[in-house]
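Ops channel
N.P.: pipeline sanity check, posting one input/output pair.
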């Protein structure tokens, strides 16, 4: 059984007066109990590195991940693997090779961990795939996604169990993605008809 975190997202980003030097279009996604922050390369500022910063309990910004951009890289992402319950505030620190520093807008994410169990079997799957979740009265959307990001099969249920027929799916590696009430869970699975 895989243990995932059920999350509730209540807040969106906002700017902090003069603290913001550059707008990067920060956004986020919560997957498997982690917060992934995404942004775009600033047009007018040639950053030598990016640092995802998080506001700690003492109201101090601390770096949790450093990224050196590739020459032609336009999109970036970084993940907070240990979000805390409550508001998690993030910003991006940018620095040029000449030492000039700028900061992005701030984005706030409300995170609440409500654990529930999710079981996906059999793996590898042959003719069918069962997805069991122990969270009652929740509607789940289940997608089977190929390695190119295309949705191959989809299902929706408000029961604690969902069965996807995989007998007509081409053999290979896939991802099962389960979404329900603000939570998202991905797991790699294999389809093998032998």
């Amino acid at each position: 059984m895989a243990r995932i975190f059920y999350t509730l997202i209540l807040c969106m980003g906002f700017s902090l007066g003069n603290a913001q030097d550059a707008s990067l279009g920060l956004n986020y996604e919560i997957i498997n109990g982690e917060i992934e922050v995404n942004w775009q390369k600033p047009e007018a500022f040639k950053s030598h590195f990016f640092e995802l910063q998080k506001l700690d309990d003492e109201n101090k910004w601390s770096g949790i991940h450093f990224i050196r951009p590739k020459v032609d890289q336009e999109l970036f992402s970084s993940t907070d693997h240990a979000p805390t319950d409550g508001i998690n505030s993030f910003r991006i620190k940018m620095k040029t090779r000449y030492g000039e520093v700028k900061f992005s807008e701030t984005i706030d994410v409300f995170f609440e961990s409500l654990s529930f169990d999710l079981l996906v079997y059999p793996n590898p799957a042959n003719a069918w795939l069962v997805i069991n979740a122990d969270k009652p009265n929740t509607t789940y959307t289940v997608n089977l996604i190929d390695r190119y990001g295309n949705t191959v099969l989809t299902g929706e249920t408000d029961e604690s169990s969902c069965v996807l027929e995989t007998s007509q799916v081409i053999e290979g590696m896939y991802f099962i993605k389960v979404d329900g009430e603000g939570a998202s869970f991905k797991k790699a699975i294999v389809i093998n008809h032998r």
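N.P.: looks fine end to end. Residues 1-19 have pLDDT under 50 and may be disordered.
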